[in-house]
Design brief:
This protein has 14 helices and no strands. It is mainly alpha-helical. Helix 2 runs antiparallel to helix 4 and helix 4 (137-161) crosses helix 8 (234-252). The protein starts with 31 loop residues before the first helix and ends in a 20-residue tail after the last helix.
Length: 356
């Protein structure tokens, strides 16, 4: 698919520009055979280690799950009693309250920084330096109104409409929660379903005949903030935001408690991806932030389909890709991987107008 060309008033930041092809960080092309050998070695080693540790790990996990199982089981029964064991109330009202709380709880932290500019130490982790510092209040209020509409009208409407499908697929509110191992397996399946659903629906939304009517609204924020994750046209929110997340639990016929856990994970990660900050020990938001800057890169969630379809080439050739890691230290990645100097720059003469 071809994407609508974008006109940007400001020059793109240095970290978004392609790396110098002569840079020592430039990866050399590797043969397919060599890649397969390394992959086989890594997978083989991992399988051997897993086989050796499986019994021990399983024993510890089952002890933990057994010890905490009564706690979660008690909490779940309390929720069922609260809603009178009514599946419609649990699925519609319970899902709405759970997702609403998670979304605003996570974004409260990011909004506080965006509005107040505090704490000061947090600003050094800003990806697009100088953008939304502070955030435009009028633009923020408009975004909040759209977000609330999508949550309380589109989201609730879809959840209610899917009640017959939930029942047909066997998505229960049973008192007995699923096992720890099964929950992990389902979460892994949900993640793959989301990658496929979001990538292709998102890329379709960038088609010129659709973009200006639907997806352009979301891209008003070239430097996104957390709540922008669901700042979108209602149709886009339905097709591209909600369906890829809901589809997994429906296909698996999952327990509603597992679905709630998955919704919490998906909401948290998408809020972080749109936050505009790359904080230590959190998933990297560099890929999706780059998408908002460039428009035609990084359509997916995991990056698997972007690699397959070649829609991350510009990203992989940029400094932003070097920074696309989970930080395990406190040094900002803009310092660990600094922007390249512009052409004509020197400590004594300064910089010319030409950029690399």
């Amino acid at each position: 698919m071809t994407e609508e060309p974008q006109c940007q008033a400001m020059s793109e930041p240095d970290w978004a520009k392609p790396r110098d092809p002569n840079s020592p960080r430039k990866e050399k092309a590797k043969s397919v055979i060599e890649s397969l050998k390394k992959t086989a070695f890594v997978l083989g080693t991992a399988l051997i280690c897993f086989a050796a540790a499986r019994n021990s790990i399983t024993w510890h996990v089952e002890r933990f799950w057994g010890a905490s199982g009564d706690f979660w089981q008690t909490r779940w029964r309390w929720i069922l009693d609260l809603f009178g064991h009514n599946d419609v109330a649990v699925i519609v009202l319970g899902t709405t309250l759970e997702t609403f709380f998670v979304f605003w709880f996570v974004n409260a932290f990011f909004l506080f920084i965006d509005i107040t500019g505090r704490p000061k130490w947090a600003l050094k982790y800003k990806i697009q330096d100088g953008q939304n510092m502070p955030v435009d209040k009028k633009k923020l209020i408009r975004a909040i109104k759209v977000v609330l509409f999508n949550q309380l009208v589109v989201g609730v409407g879809l959840t209610a409409a899917l009640i017959p499908v939930y029942r047909w697929r066997g998505c229960s509110i049973d008192e007995n929660l699923p096992s720890f191992h099964w929950v992990l397996f389902e979460i892994a399946c949900f993640t793959l379903v989301e990658e496929f659903g979001f990538y292709y629906s998102h890329r379709l939304a960038h088609h010129p005949k659709i973009y200006k009517y639907i997806h352009k609204q979301h891209h008003e924020w070239t430097a996104p903030i957390g709540i922008v994750s669901i700042y979108a046209h209602p149709l886009e929110h339905l097709v591209s935001n909600l369906c890829p997340i809901v589809l997994g639990p429906l296909l698996m016929g999952s327990h509603i408690a597992t679905a709630w856990l998955w919704f919490s994970i998906a909401l948290t990660t998408t809020n972080i991806s749109h936050s505009g900050y790359h904080f230590p020990f959190l998933p990297s938001p560099e890929a999706h932030d780059f998408h908002h800057l460039k428009f035609n890169q990084n359509y997916g969630v995991l990056g698997v389909l972007d690699r397959l379809h070649g829609t991350d080439i510009q990203f992989r050739n940029s400094v932003a890709y070097d920074r696309h890691i989970m930080m395990i230290g406190l040094t900002p990645l803009t310092e660990a991987f600094p922007d390249r100097p512009k052409k004509g720059c020197s400590p004594k003469k300064g910089c010319s107008d030409k950029i690399e």
